[in-house]
Design a protein that fits this description.
Strand order of the largest sheet: 1-2-3-4
Oligomer: single chain
Order of helices and strands: HEHEEHHE
Amino acid sequence: RVGEGLSGWVEVNRHTIINSYPDLDLPQAASALGLQRCVCTPVFAFGTIAGVLTVYTRQAAGFSDREIRLVGAIAQELGVEFTRHDRTLGCDLAALDDAAPLASAG
């Protein structure tokens, strides 16, 4: 649901969360999968949130600064692609903001 877990918080607050605990997003699956840390970052298209990119790691130390920058760059590129897709197909991504909760990718 919108606003729940780490990805939901990022969607609502539009700020990146770095090296947090994945069990806050995936309470049962995180430990079963051995996930130790995650990065959640918003994906923007046309100045509005189009989704949240959440990446998980099994490394207890979490993500390095370089990896965090890479996740941010990937999120920006996703936003560019969403924008390009919107212009090509005539979709209205901004209308989706109120339509349905967003799922995290991860």
